[in-house]
Design brief:
alpha+beta; four-stranded antiparallel β-sheet; 5 helices; about 35% helix; about 25% strand
Length: about 150
């Protein structure tokens, strides 16, 4: 038996970062994504967000690549959202996403951060948060492609 702990903090935004996830229906979306993650034999620690993006803290099963996981999650949830009448302004997820490997020791702090998204975003805009997360991970941002859906 292999022993792995592949913990990722994933941020997925809506196309053009438009506010298309109504607050009153976000829990339904999170429930769907929770089921998706469980079906992938992965462990969801926390999911939350606001109208234009979601944060997911997940431990991926060792047989799943991060890129495939996010691609399939976006495709599956996109179809589910469009089949629902609760997200009339939603057109798609953004083409890009951010994902950061996380130490298991940081898990509880990150869970609280994700739980407090609404409060957090009363003080900081999504673009600033996204930029900060990417910079803190030591990633150099190419401004040509930052927050574009080309």
């Amino acid at each position: 038996m292999s022993y792995t702990q592949l913990l990722y903090h994933i941020v997925i935004r809506t196309k053009y970062s438009k506010k298309t996830i109504p607050t009153q229906h976000a829990a339904q979306l999170y429930k769907y994504i929770t089921g998706y993650i469980k079906n992938k034999k992965s462990i969801l620690y926390q999911i939350n967000g606001i109208e234009n993006h979601i944060h997911i803290l997940v431990s991926l099963h060792s047989s799943i690549s991060l890129a495939d996981f996010v691609k399939d999650l976006k495709t599956s949830s996109n179809l589910w959202i469009k089949a629902s009448n609760n997200y009339p302004d939603f057109t798609n997820w953004g083409n890009k996403y951010a994902a950061f490997s996380v130490s298991y020791k940081e898990k509880d702090v990150l869970i609280k951060y994700i739980q407090n998204q609404k409060t957090h975003h009363s003080k900081i805009e999504f673009e600033d948060e996204y930029r900060k997360l990417i910079n803190e991970a030591g990633i150099i941002i190419d401004e040509t492609y930052f927050l574009t859906d080309n």
